[in-house]
Write a structure and sequence with these properties.
By secondary structure, the protein is an alpha/beta fold. The protein has helices at residues 3-10, 34-40, 55-62, 78-87, 98-109, and strands spanning 13-16, 27-30, 45-49, 67-70, 91-93.
C-alpha cells in the first residue's frame, strides 16, 4: 500500500514530504520512545508517534521509514517540518488517538 492511499483512507494531514507520497509501506511501528524505534522498527515502516521534535525525523531518516504520523492533533514545529522536507520523508498528522489510528492502519496494511 502506498502512503497516498493511507492519507486518503485515514484522512491524514500532510505537514511535509509531499513529493514522496508514492512510497510503499512495508509495515508499521508505534512508539514514543526514540531508542525503542531505533532498535526495533524496520525500513519502509510508517511510524506512529506523538513526538513532534526534530529528532523524530533524524530517527525516521536513519531507519529509512516510509513516513511518520503524528497523532492526537499534535503539530510538529517548524524545524521538524523543515527537517522532514530535507530528508524527503512524509510527515503526516491525525486527530485520532494512537490506539484507534494504529488499529485502522493495521487493517489497511494487512488487508
Amino acid at each position: 500500500m502506498k502512503i497516498s492511499e493511507i492519507i486518503e483512507k485515514l484522512d491524514l494531514k500532510v505537514f511535509a514530504g509531499a513529493d514522496n507520497l508514492d512510497r510503499k509501506i512495508s509495515g508499521g511501528y508505534v512508539s514514543d520512545l526514540l531508542s525503542d524505534v531505533m532498535g526495533f522498527s524496520n525500513e519502509g515502516n510508517i511510524w506512529v508517534t506523538l513526538q513532534t521534535h526534530k529528532n523524530v525525523m533524524a530517527i525516521a531518516s536513519l531507519k529509512e521509514h516510509a513516513a511518520v504520523i503524528v497523532v492526537k492533533g499534535f503539530q510538529p514545529d517548524e524545524e521538524t517540518i523543515k527537517h522532514a522536507n530535507e530528508e524527503g520523508i512524509p510527515l503526516l498528522g491525525s486527530h485520532e488517538p494512537t490506539f484507534e489510528l494504529s488499529g485502522k492502519l493495521y487493517e489497511l496494511i494487512n488487508s
